[in-house]
Amino acid sequence: MSRGGSSAGFDRSITIFSPEGRLYQVEYAFKAINQSGLTSIGVRGKDSACVITQRKIPDKLVDADTVTHLYRVTKNSGCVMTGMVADSDMQVQRARYEAAEYKYQYGYDMPPDMISKRLADIGQSYTQIAHMRPLGCCMILIGWDQEKGAQLYRVDPAGFFCGFRACSAGAKQTESNNYLEKKIKKNSMMNETDVIQTAIAALSHVLATDFKPSEIEIGVVSEKSPAFRKLTEAEIDEHLNALAERD
């Protein structure tokens, strides 16, 4: 892809800065996240954390049970991936490999912050190696840490990671963050039910639609049940009904 003006040619290589100090290929990786058209949200409360994303079946011939954007990494941690599906699968596979190596070496599960840091380090290395390319996906990771409790991290293609009380990724990221800032400011110490319903309300608000249980996926960890698990359609339906009655 060619460009006019002073930036011409600088988007052809990952490792070359433009005169403005930008890495265009890394910026394009962020744009690739939005190409899926999906939006994902993560919310953390006082004793739990959850991730939510849309569930779109790309073709009527596809087996719906095989389509998911939620992945378990360790027993007590899991993530939602947004962006290019093949890149997402590769990053999850690497996360599981790193977590397995860590457990073999140290004898206990890799904490969520260490998983995020390791994946961010690997992602950053892709931005300065000529024969590699940044991954066109974003990971929102939740987990239960025995010392720190519920954790929520976001890892982006540039190799940046950070802990959040709430965050989002995808096509409606800006709108989601604006909504979450207002909600979290009012109630930062939410229980598990509030966390899940806040995430659903945020996604429903930014997409301006009411969901059916089969149209969203929700993953949860909590003090009561530290293991990462996906909510069933029946459980999602209960939360949707509770939100509808509240509104």
The strand count comes to 10
Percentage of residues in DSSP E strands: 15-25%
- Order of strands, main sheet, comes to 8-1-2-9-10
Shape: globular
Radius of gyration: 19 Å
Q: Provide the succession of SSEs.
A: HEEEEHHEEEEHHEEH
Please state the average pLDDT score. 92
Supply the number of helical segments: 6
Helix content: 25-40%
Helix/strand class? alpha+beta
Q: Determine the N-to-C terminus distance.
A: 48 Å
Please outline the major beta sheet.
5 strands, antiparallel
Q: State the low-pLDDT regions, or none.
A: 1-5
Task: Walk me through this protein's architecture.
By secondary structure, this protein is of the alpha+beta class. 37% of the residues lie in helices and 23% in strands. The protein contains six helices and ten strands; from the N terminus they run H-E-E-E-E-H-H-E-E-E-E-H-H-E-E-H. The strands form two sheets. Strands 8-1-2-9-10 form a five-stranded antiparallel sheet. The protein has a five-stranded antiparallel sheet with strand order 3-4-5-6-7. Helix 5 crosses helix 6. The longest helix is centred in the middle third of the chain and has 22 residues. It is globular and about 55 Å long. It starts with 23 loop residues before the first helix and ends with a helix. The N terminus is likely disordered.
